[in-house]
Every structure is written in structure tokens, then in C-alpha cells.
Amino acid sequence: MHIARTIEELRNLRRRQETDTWGLVPTMGFLHDGHLDLVQRARRENQRVAVSIFVNPTQFDQNEDLEKYPRDLERDLALLEKAGTDVAFCPPPEEVYPPGFQTYVTVEEVSQPLEGASRSGHFRGVATVVAKLFCLVRPTRAYFGQKDAQQCVVIQRMTQDLGFDLQVVICPTVREADGLAMSSRNARLSPEQRRSAPALYRALRSAAAALARGQRDAEALRRRMIETIEAEPLARIDYVSVADPASLRELDEVESKALLSLAVFYGTIRLIDNLLLEEPFILSVGAVSNGDRVPKG
Ligand code: PAF
């Protein structure tokens, strides 16, 4: 595995395999099985795999602590090597944002609700760094996790609007055995918070079950999610949403598709999760209709 710390190194490595297909997995490091699932899929579908590890300062707002974001580069590189990565790109911040940097990508409407409403400037930072990675790596395919549902919508919109010649591949959420969606932030939960955190997934499942039984009123579905989270004394709701999966506008009534999502604080740690559901909204034990990786039972 080659490790590139500068744009020049990355470009040189990319040029050496000019005609190969390349899969790109952008990450902020502190890798877990969800990331490795993306890397494995990229490995299967491309001749070369590049993974970026970059804690992107521009996607953190003042209320979030960039410094506290967990990091373990040595461990990440060992995991990537084992997973068959060809190039790990781990630049310092000044390599991505050199002095005088002033060019940003803004994806307008779909960046505004949900995460965008709670985290000012977040998607401008995400879109900018992902666009830059797309320009540098020139991947054939780029891999993202469904767990960050709105990020997927923003990146798909940007890719289409700016005409990037690549396929955005969205992979199912990978979950712990108790249903908690894998996230680098989980490592910062206290043992009590960790025990309570599967409530996010329970809330989503409860609303999905109601939908499967014929409840189409979006407000009733939101109420179900709120009730489940409010039963957890350590949890504080940021938002719950039942939205159109493409426009991310809140629905009054669910027709053929819905994105159920929520963000919940445990102390200062903010967790998100979602289920993307489509008619016929069948909810079986241990599985939901969107291919989500759900533990049995
Ligand atoms: O999902 C993430 O980890 C980040 O938002 C991404 C896509 C790597 C951009 O910094």
C-alpha cells in the first residue's frame, strides 16, 4: 500500500495506473467495520482502491469540537493495508486548504434541512472536500454509507450538477449486534450512553413497523420516534424526520417512499440514523426493506 501525504504524491500514483478503474472511499479515519465494508466493496468492483483519511475542518461548525474527533492513523493504515487498499491519502490540513483557499462548493436546497439546519456550513465543507477528492483521484466509483443519508443526497446532487464522470455507490448501513449504527462517534459514549443508544434504531423500527401496518400519517410516525427516544433519560432529541428521500422535504403523508431519520444527543455526542423505506413497506423480523444490515432477532 502506498501512503500519499501530498497532492503531488497522490497525482503521481494515480497517473501510474491511468487506465485502471479506481474506487475511492473518502473517510475521516478512526475506521470501523462500516468503513471497511465500503473498502471491501470498492476492492471487489475496481482494479485500484484509494482511501482518504482526512478530518475535514470545514465541515465542523463552532459547536462541534474538531479537536475531539477521534483519530488513530497508525491503526487505520494497518486496517487499510489488510483490506487491500492500494493508496491511502492522508494529507495535513494545509495540503487540502492551502493559504488563500477561497473556493467552496455549495449544494443549495438539499443541504438546508435536517443535518444542515443543525450544523451550519456542514455540507459546504463536505461537498468542497469531496469535490476536491473527486478532482484529485478521478475515481470510476466513489463509495459512501447510507448512514449519512443526507450526505449521500448532497453528493449525488453535486456529482450530477457538476458533471463528475463517476458513479456514486451508496452502501447499506452496518450495525452493531444491538442495532446501533456503526460510527466513529460511538467510541466516545460512556457505558450508560452506549447501552441506551440502540434506542435510535428502535425508534426507527417502531415507526417503520407502524408504516408497514398502514400508518401513512407522517406526524404520527414522527410521534412514535419521539416517544421511543423520550423514554431514554440520557437521550435528547435534535430532530426526527419523515421526509421525501430525494428532496428531503418533510412529508404530511407517506406515499411510495420515505426517509425516516433522526439525530439524538447523548451529552455532547450527537448520533444520527435513518431508514430508507419503499412500498410495500414490509417489515420482517431482523430485516427491513432497504437492504440495511440488521442483526437477527
Ligand atoms: O462521511 C464522512 O466521513 C465525511 O463527511 C467525508 C465524506 C469523508 C467528507 O469529509
What is the tally of helical segments? Answer: 10
Structural class call reads alpha/beta
Terminal residue distance: 39 Å
Mean pLDDT: 95
Biggest sheet, open or closed, and with what strands and sense? Answer: 6 strands, parallel
| SSE topology string | EHEHEHEHHHEHEHHHEEE
Read across the widest sheet, the strand sequence of neighbours is 1-4-3-2-5-6
How much helix, percentage-wise, in residues? 25-40%
Give a structural overview.
Helix content is 35%, strand content 19%. The protein is of the alpha/beta class. β8 (257-266) and β9 form a beta hairpin. The longest helix has 16 residues, at 122-137. The chain is globular and about 55 Å long. Residues 286-290 have low confidence and may be disordered. Pantoate (PAF) binds at residues 26-28, 56, 59, 126, 129-130, 148, 151.
Highlighted features:
binds pantoate; three-stranded antiparallel beta sheet; alpha/beta; 297 residues; 19% strand; 10 helices
